[in-house]
């Protein structure tokens, strides 16, 4: 199952956060209900079974602008092309609002 995410931080930090969401998932505590954690809990996997890869590294836009918005658009394209919105994947939502 696929999850697409973007970050401005180091990949190591982002992956560590996902592993923590898997390890800390508690079915009775709604604060821990992140789709990735819920999937791993339901499938009886642990954080060690998480596989990840960087599919693209996006450089800062040459003309400046809102880098976060640029990354969100890029992420949305990958979510669409990878079909990673639940139930097929582990992304909770996909919106075209950022393209407007």
Please summarize what this structure is.
With 100 residues, this protein is mainly α. Helices cover 37% and strands 0% of the residues. The protein has one domain.
Summed over residues and divided by their number, the pLDDT gives a mean of 86
Question: Nearest-angstrom radius of gyration?
Answer: 15 Å
Secondary-structure class: mainly alpha
Written as H for each helix and E for each strand, in order along the chain, the element string is: HHH
Classify the helix fraction into a percent range. Answer: 25-40%
Kindly estimate the percentage of residues that lie in beta strands according to DSSP.
under 5%
Please characterize this protein's 3D structure.
- 37% of the residues lie in helices and 0% in strands.
- The chain has one domain.
- By secondary structure, it is mainly α.
- The two termini are 29 Å apart.
- The chain has helices at residues 11-23, 35-42, 67-82.
